[in-house]
Amino acid sequence: MTAHERRTKIMMERSGIVLLAVGILSSICVYFGHSWYHTKFLTMLGLGQALGDAIGSFFIIATVFIGQRLVSLAIFDDLDFGLIRSVQKLQSNNDEMKAEISELDQLASTDRLTGAWNRRRLEELVGGEIERLSRYDQALSMLMIDIDHFKSINDRYGHSVGDRVLVELTGVLQSSLRTSDSLTRWGGEEFIVLCPNTTLTTAVILARRLRELIDRSDFAAVGDVKVSIGVAECLGKEEWLEWFCRADNALYRAKANGRNQVQYASETPVRSHAEGGRSDGLVQLTWHGAYECGHGEIDREHQALFSISNDLLNAVFAGRSVEEIGGNIELLILETATHFRNEEAIIRAAGFPYVTNHMDKHRDLLNKAENLKREFEAGTLEIGTLFQFLAFDVVARHMLEEDRSFFSYLVGRDLGDAPRRQISAANR
Ligand SMILES: [Fe+2]
Ligand SMILES: [Fe+2]
């Protein structure tokens, strides 16, 4: 440092300290109720009284700031001013770059219209979640949501109204999802909810709540909006595409069965640990090929009821709350009722002569299930008794004994699932 620079630096240091002292003393005067411009400091600083309180206050603050800054600079005897400025500038640039990168990343991962995640982000999330599933054996489920008759909304009201419906629907969904769930706009009017650490049963309960909420919501532009939802739990070692196709097929069934409903893929994942609980060593209902009647829809529903019964059992042994277990029970009864209705229509169409008798058995089972459920909710029935009835009497025994009586009438009558690709956009 040259002699001139050293003298300059010393002068700045002294000036800084003087200015700092002036600022502090002026502030003290103001603090103790003396109007600052009545003090001798005003004269010393050479400012007129006409400047007023606002400018004066600003001046005090600026004075203190400058004083502190000069003093702090003077402390770094061994550092060059230029270097400090360069470092400060670099730091500032770096912060700006970080903010810009974060903003760009957010933009690249977000659907522009709705603000939900986009496909790119979903595929990143899925990779991590499938990895977690295979490493920690945690459950992982997906909801595929599609707006019913969206094309007619666009045709009738125009695309701008259609866009508003998509934005409103995103808001409704996001307000109801759990913090661990993530919402993605897959494309068009189709959304995907990724549900980590969630079994099929819990995902179906969530899907039903979402569907009902949307059904009840009033959409500003069009009034009613309805959705169909397909649900699938990721099976062990399953690839993303296979899992996606199973959810897509479930959505297809929801559309084909009349829309505004939830359908799910029934395959039971092979897992050693239940969601958040334990299942080792517990008695489980195990599905065997020998239980199949050969009719795709009936077999799929029977298998799903096995799966839901196992989830109920796991919930009981994991010590879940009465409310949570109540949700599992409700789902099992609802799905059983739906299955009974479907089965009755199928066996009637197949010409099964004892359909009325079979319907009576269904009705008796459902009535008893509802009565036991009420007793359980009132606290007068143990869960073991209710589970025994639902899982073994309704699901296992009825399906494995009573239902066998119509198996022979279904041979060759299964229409199977039409390939999903045959469904046109207009038909959704
Ligand atoms: Fe059945
Ligand atoms: Fe039956």
Note the main attributes of this structure.
five-stranded mixed beta sheet; alpha+beta; 13 helices; Alpha-Beta Plaits; Four Helix Bundle (Hemerythrin (Met), subunit A); binds fe (ii) ion; elongated; 428 residues; disordered C terminus
Brief summary of the model shown:
The chain has about 425 residues and is an alpha+beta fold.
3D architecture notes:
This protein has 428 residues and is an alpha+beta fold. The chain has three domains: 3-78, no CATH class; 111-271, Alpha-Beta Plaits (2-Layer Sandwich), CATH 3.30.70.270; 280-428, Four Helix Bundle (Hemerythrin (Met), subunit A) (Up-down Bundle), CATH 1.20.120. The chain has 13 helices and five strands. It has helices spanning 3-31, 40-45, 52-75, 81-109, 119-136, 150-157, 159-176, 200-216, 240-256, 296-317, 322-349, 355-378, 383-400, and strands at 140-147, 182-187, 190-196, 227-233, 262-264. It has a five-stranded mixed sheet, sandwiched between helices. The chain is elongated and about 115 Å long.
